[in-house]
Amino acid sequence: MDKFTSLNADLYRYILEHCSPRPQVLNELAAETAERFGPLSLMQISPEQGAFMGLLVRLMEAKNAIEVGTFTGYSALCVAMALPEDGRLICCDLNEEWTNVAQRFWEKAGVAQKIELRLGPAIDTLRSLPDDVLFDFAFIDADKESYLAYFEEILKRLRPNGVVLFDNVLWMGAVADAAITDPNTMALRELNDRLARDPRVEVVMLPIADGLTLARKR
Known about the structure:
CATH superfamily of the domain at 23-164: Vaccinia Virus protein VP39
Order of helices and strands: HHHEHEHEHEHEHEE
Number of helices: 8
CATH architecture of the domain at 23-164: 3-Layer(aba) Sandwich
Distance between the termini: 30 Å
Low-confidence stretches: none
Strand order of the largest sheet: 3-2-1-4-5-7-6
CATH class of the domain at 23-164: Alpha Beta
Radius of gyration: 17 Å
Mean pLDDT: 97
């Protein structure tokens, strides 16, 4: 028997009301992103996802993290605030306008010293990292057709029991509809299928926001 609860707007608001209060700097960043970028602000992760990521980073006692796809910096801020004072987060993105907003809010939150922003193609940034760099935590939320390539580069640099998170793995439900065959959907469908069969990782897919997959390196 299937067991799940479908969300509506009222139930979703109830969920948000029963999480720990969101830091004001995150509220301000979300508001500015919505005002400046309009529909593009949907690329920002949801409040409960950010809270979940921060909690996971703390539970893991992660110290070294990497993010592929930063946008205006909300997810990076959630991770950086959860890292210890000597923690480090590398952020990979292409867009200077978006990440200028991110950097301003990282400064405002007092975590800029933990974050290194690398502008340029993420695959080049990842391949330029020494093979012996060991990350504890990674978040992939960028161009969907490159998810698998990012994963392979990160996995070899991830410590055992380290975790990679993948955003948008449900793609608004399109991954479960065989009639939908656009490149993004096909790429995410392939990712989901391959992760589920990959003996190098233990995987769980969660219905948080647009779908969030956690892959633990064995």
